[in-house]
Amino acid sequence: GVPAGAEGARLSAIARDSLAEPYTLTSTNVPAGLHRYVVVCSGKGTGTATLTAAGTSATGAVSCGTPPAKSTVELDVTEAGADLTLRIEWAPGHELRDTADGWAIGVWTTHLD
């Protein structure tokens, strides 16, 4: 379900849990245009994903599930060369669980324009 040409990576629950909360991922020097982030999450619970670049932001809900659930958030970046940050703040009680392939969360990004 991840779009062709998307760039990204997956993390195991152990690797993800070793990161500082909330989950943050920054892409530097992005081109102007529409950017789509797809978050795939295995486990249970929800969170709020916020994309921010050059003073603008967009938010969307993230849901985890078994099988893994896919959530999407998009931001139209108006300033070429900006840094684009994805921040996921998890609701209390969320729990990531590794899939049979050994990952619990994946994040992919596609520049659509």
Distance between the ends: 20 Å
The beta-strand count equals 9
Strand content: over 45%
| Low-pLDDT sequence parts | none
Order of helices and strands: EHEEEEEEEE
Radius of gyration: 14 Å
Continuous helix count: 1
- Structural class label: mainly beta
Which shape, going by the Cα principal axes?
globular
User: Approximately how much helix is present in the residues?
Assistant: under 10%
Major β-sheet annotation: 5 strands, antiparallel
Oligomeric form: single chain
Mean pLDDT across every amino acid position = 88
Give a short overview.
The chain is mainly beta and 113 residues long.
Topology:
Elements: E1 7-11, H1 13-17, E2 23-30, E3 33-41, E4 43-53, E5 56-64, E6 69-77, E7 82-90, E8 95-96, E9 105-111
Describe this structure in words.
This protein is mostly beta strands. It is 4% helix and 61% strand. It contains 1 helix and 9 strands, in the order βαββββββββ. The protein has one helix at 13-17, and strands at 7-11, 23-30, 33-41, 43-53, 56-64, 69-77, 82-90, 95-96, 105-111. Strands 2, 4, 5, 7 and 8 form a 5-stranded antiparallel beta sheet that branches. Strands 1-9-3-6 form a 4-stranded antiparallel beta sheet. The two termini are 20 Å apart. The model has no long low-confidence stretch (mean pLDDT 88).
